[in-house]
Amino acid sequence: LGIYEGDKYLSMIIDAADQSDHALPHSATKSHTSDAAWKIKLHLIGVLVHGRGSYVYTCPPHLAQGNNITVQALWDTIVKIKTKNGKLPPVLFLQLDNTTKSCKGRYLMAFLALLVEHNVFKKIVLSFLPVGHTHEDIDQFFSCISRTLRFYDAHSRLSLAHCIKRSFRKWGVPPEVTHWTTVAN
Q1: Pick from 59, 71, 67, 53: nearest CA to 12
Q2: Which one of 26, 125, 161, 175 has the fewest beta carbons within 10 angstroms of its own beta carbon?
Q3: How far apart are CA 52 and CA 89, in angstroms?
Q4: CA–CA separation, 21 vs 171, rounded Å?
Q5: Which residues make beta-bridge pairs with 26?
Q6: What is the pLDDT of residues 129-177, one digit of tens each?
Q7: Which residue, among 34, 35, 36, 17, has the nearest Cα to 138 in the 3D structure?
């Protein structure tokens, strides 16, 4: 519905990638030395907004994964869409991973209630995929990033962002990449 009736609905999926593929510095050509080198593991949080765009947030390892990350990705994406379009549709369809750790906490539910209470959205429909079910579109998004990293070095977050933008186009537009150093609590 978010694609066909974008003035009425905003459809969004948020998920995190497996961090084993996203450590910096990353070398496309592997060696014993590159494998043994100290690396910073980055978390990648992906957000697909159906019919509108894709967003990636990089998150350093000192930021605990959980409700804060999900709320921050949701809020940052809402702000970007509102800034770009000048308004938001009244209904948000939000699809999240089926985990208690980052998607089923009381703080996330309270944040969604606040969005409705403050008329950011009139209604939010939240859904979770069954355990073991793949998130076809967002998993494909992360797969494209991993595939691109097989051929390109990424020695900094900026070069990682360049690889991410080169890896994927949804609705003709490359993903927007944002690097977090902190998130709200």
Answers
A1: 53
A2: 125
A3: 12
A4: 25
A5: 154
A6: 766 655 577 778 888 888 888 898 888 889 999 999 999 887 788 999 9
A7: 17
Q: β-strands 40-41, 23-24: how paired?
A: antiparallel
pLDDT at 24: 81
- Which range scores top for mean pLDDT: 19-28, 68-77, 123-132? 68-77
d(CA 52, CA 170): 8
Q: Cα(158)–Cα(5) distance, rounded to whole angstroms?
A: 35
How far apart CA 64 and CA 101 sit, in angstroms, is 10
Whole-angstrom distance, CA of residue 33 vs CA of residue 180: 29
Q: Is the pLDDT higher at 118 or at 182?
A: 118
* Cβ proximity of 72 and 183 under 8 Å: yes
